[in-house]
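Why show two proteins at once? Because comparison is the fastest way to build intuition. When a single record is shown, students tend to memorize it. When two are placed side by side, the eye starts asking what differs. So, the first record is below.
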Amino acid sequence: MKTQEDIQTRIGDLRQERERLTGELEKARVEERDALIAGKKPGSTSAAIIARMGTVDEALAELNDRLAATQASAQRNERRKRAEAALHKNSERAKLAEQVDRALVALSEAWPAYVEALRRDLGATSAAGGDLTAVERGLTSKRLAEPLVKALIHAGGGTLARALGIETPIKDRHSLSLAAAEERVAASLRAELLRVRATSPQAHVAREAQQELEKMEKSA
């Protein structure tokens, strides 16, 4: 018997056997008592039944021990399976955690470098006619760097910002990636280049530049 079901079935059979023997023992004792009363030699049936009951009890004890061991083994196996499954899921999460860690390290390195480059180029870009509205608030030290917060919300929505403890009135619809913010600066500089070309003494150059400038303004 290897399975719990087999052992439990056999235990049930032996318990029924013991109940039957108990009934037979009571009957045999009555018969032996009556034989003594009648002056006859009593039989030895009760002794045989008691011996049989002892054997049944030993078998029941052994089967109960086996059942307990089987149940303990099954519980250990179930715990092992749960732990292995959880460990596998942990391994999958660890891969994602590594991605998050790498992204945070990259951000911690790239953002200061970006701010420094922005600070260095701010004057020249502004003097060249660039519109820095989308990025210049990244230089302030009195409030959260708005371009970074907008980029964060653009990347992961308000949920990600809140997960990082950032409370901001900026809505998802107002979010903007840093690349898109820089593209706005680039667009303003391209427009400035067109304005410069539009003042060219060469009529066809000025005309083409003016047409492109008008087209750009309409699509803005």
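Second record. Ask yourself what differs from the first in the token line.
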Amino acid sequence: MPPPPPLGFGRSRDEFRFDPAFDDDALVAARAALTQGRWGAARELLVATGDTWDRRGHRLVVLAENPSSAVWAEDWQIAEPDSADAAALLACATVLRATNGKADPDAARTACHAAARLAPADPTPWLSLLILARHTGTDDEQSRAFDQVRGRHRTHHHAHHLMTACLAERRLCDGDALFHEVYEFAEWAAGDAPDGSPLAVLPVVAHTERYRVLAEAGSKPGDPAESGHWTTWRARQSLKSAFDWWLEWDGRDHPRLYVDLNFLAHAHFFQGHTAEAAALINRIGPYVTRAPWAYPDLNPGKAFRAARGSVLGLGSS
């Protein structure tokens, strides 16, 4: 049985934020400094991160999301032209600008390849290329970028989530086919990962991403509660395995743990597992993610508050 939420849950009903930095205080501080043009804090953060690839990728993406990050990364690169960290930040920031239509995708690709040459073992420039390929690339470009990431770090969390989203968007004509390639990919990746890997949650992510695609296309109801998408044997099996992973391993040291917890809480809530959803939502605390609560086109804050109010008895309005 899942642990119940503790009595006396005292958070304000609106005390959560969509901040991808989560509880990484060092990242929050470096991001704030970078916003003001002080890239030295980002430099120190990335040096301290080293080759912990999941954490490095997570921190670089969060740092790159600020609209001014590309400018400050260029300043950093001028000061330290051989810095692989400066090149990786510039590449990621340029990619994110390109996905928003504010930079040339070809320039973003060039920046990624330049960063990759400075640090051949680093999967992060290839992660940036995968982000770009998801928005502007072909299926083959997505697969090649993913293979490059996985060849350097075979359990890369963010890359597997991105590839799952890419695959979920393919073969819409298959509808809710039980053997769609996204399910096969997620089950393969989860099975290939070592014990305790957060990729155990990937089949749940695959199921949720496929719901998003089908609902956006009008093949599933836009209200997840009415979709029936989480009542299949595949959904039940995937969710049980993923929840067992959380109970046994917790994953508390993983930089993207809250991404997994939000997907798990969302799926348990819409499968009607109140106790499990309550435990997960309580564990999430203020670290709410837009995905999957926004799927397919919902207000994520309202959707999360409604779920939290239902299972924890907090106000949902």
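One difference worth noting in the second protein: Residues 77 and 86 are 5 Å apart (CA to CA).
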